Amino acid sequence: MEKLKVIVSERIADEGIALLKKELEVDYRDGISRDELLSIIDQYDALIVRSVTQVNEELISRGTKLKVVGRAGNGVDNIDVDVCTRYGVLVANTPDSNTISAAEQTISLLLSSVRNTAWASRYLKEVKWDRKPFRGVELYGKTVGIVGLGRIGSMVATRLKSFNMRVLAYDPYIADQRFERFGVEKVEKLEDLMGQVDFLTVHTPRNEETMHMIDEKMFALAKDGLRIVNCARGGIIKESAIEEGLRSGKIASAGLDVFEKEPAEGNPLFAFNNVVVTPHLGADTFEAQKRVGETIAEQVIKALRGEIVPNVINLPTMVSDELDYLKPYITLAEKMGMFYYQMAKAPLNKVELTYSGPLTMNETEILTVAFLRGLLHPVMAEKVNYVNARLMADERGIVVFEHKEEQSTRRYKNVITAKMFGNDYTLELAGTVSRARNPLLVEINGYETENDLEGYVIIVKNEDRPRVIGPFATALGDAGVNIASMKTARKTKGDIAIMLLNVDNKAEDHVLEALGKLDGIVGKPKLLYF
Ligand code: NAD
Ligand code: MLT
């Protein structure tokens, strides 16, 4: 029988290539041009990439035989996972294989930047023996701030504690026990962290929320002479703000492994002697690359054999007769999970899920897992999938309870109810699937509604009286935001009511601020995206 074909478009370890060759026809084309890749992708059943190949619709739509994209590494920000899902292409990565190397690279960048190691080395080799320009600082006794206390952030924390540093961290999405476990002091607001630290290192995923999260305004709150490291993703610390900070002296040094535009060439930050840069080498150790190469080869082979793949990012690996029936409920559960952290930046302690109606005759575990994936995916880099979502929730101290009721007590045949309990915040949702098999929110905190969970949704509280809803809708229209549908709901006449609007385009933050100040509107509206 003819072997299935895989193309590897970036460098992976020889051990991985050897494993692939045992089962597949392998085209190892490290550095292949975009045009050539586009022209030949239709010949392959699998594609293996690292962080440079852009796996987007242009590529996926031409890969007519593609069944799986393997990401040899962690971050999938170069892969349009939604597009892959739409085209039925599985995406798998190797999230755990390179975390130690990335944590060690962070320490290396921190030490070499604060001791001017790279600059001094270059000066000694190219100019002369001189010690004066290169005096550095100690880590001992200083305070470091870690933004994102996930896998890599926590490893960095334990390593920096051994230098006798005071370690503070900001991560609004994890339970208090995780801070305690790593002996780290929790800081509630990023602004408060900025003012206290001598060193700052970021370890969050890059997404809409974290892109440029450390900018000029944040640096203005920092001590003069702050020293920074970014070994996560380019742009989490805004590059133009770093440049400005280096010029003014606000920033004394920087260690950067990642850049807003990669491959980075002619980046203005390269001109500074007190900036140490590496070309995205966080995962580039023999050990990590061997692990990454072997793991991705195993995953791609399993996917092509139709076996369960441990690190699938987009599709449930469960293939059964039930799946077709459950698919819209899986989407519903995932979208319901996406609510909590969009509504509140508050650690979550407990989730109670209730499945009601005939849907309970099926395996509901996949629904719970889908809910947890929706909950955790936006705040946990790219490694939450259907296989590990439960474990991830457990690790983050989120207790999950499930109940089943054969018959729904609401007017919908099948209903999923989710109660979420944080320290000071509780959210209760009920959802069902519409006739068109789309996810539908039918209740939020006791308010009955019917809203599609698709695209942008605005949620706002208002006084239940005349001349409130009209001016709100007009102001939204004046800001260029088109309302696709709108529901109002109240519990008691004259009390605080709620409006939920599906809108066609994003309402900017300043628009939401202004809407919150309108007469009869209670608080700033929330903008959610599904
Ligand atoms: P992780 O998912 O284990 O941890 C990310 C943490 O960030 C989570 O605890 C999450 O709660 C937190 N977080 C999310 N949004 C936040 C916000 N707005 N504010 C504060 N905290 C927030 O991820 P990880 O495996 O530790 O990876 C961290 C980063 O490192 C990712 O960006 C990943 O792509 C990158 N990475 C880089 C390299 C490299 O070669 N330089 C190698 C591996 C990973
Ligand atoms: C990753 O996300 O795993 C890293 O950026 C490392 C890499 O791709 O080489």
Structural summary, described in words:
By secondary structure, the protein is an alpha/beta fold. The protein has four domains: 1-97 and 283-315, NAD(P)-binding Rossmann-like Domain (Rossmann fold, 3-Layer(aba) Sandwich), CATH 3.40.50; 99-277, NAD(P)-binding Rossmann-like Domain (Rossmann fold), CATH 3.40.50.720; 318-454, D-3-phosphoglycerate dehydrogenase, domain 3 (60s Ribosomal Protein L30, Chain: A); 455-530, Alpha-Beta Plaits. It has helices at 14-23, 34-40, 57-60, 81-86, 99-114, 117-126, 151-161, 176-181, 190-196, 216-220, 239-248, 286-305, 321-337, 340-343, 365-376, 389-395, 469-478, 509-516, and strands spanning 5-8, 25-28, 46-49, 68-71, 90-93, 143-147, 166-170, 185-186, 199-202, 226-230, 251-256, 275-277, 348-356, 399-405, 415-422, 426-433, 439-444, 447-452, 456-463, 483-489, 496-503, 521-529. The strands form four sheets. It has a seven-stranded parallel beta sheet, sandwiched between helices. A six-stranded mixed beta sheet has the order 14-13-15-16-17-18. A hairpin with a 3-residue loop joins strand 15 (415-422) and strand 16. Helix 1 (14-23) packs parallel to helix 12, helix 13 packs parallel to helix 15 (365-376) and helix 15 crosses helix 16 (389-395). The model has no long low-confidence stretch (mean pLDDT 93). The structure holds nicotinamide-adenine-dinucleotide and D-malate. The site of nicotinamide-adenine-dinucleotide has 35 residues, from helix 5 and helix 7.
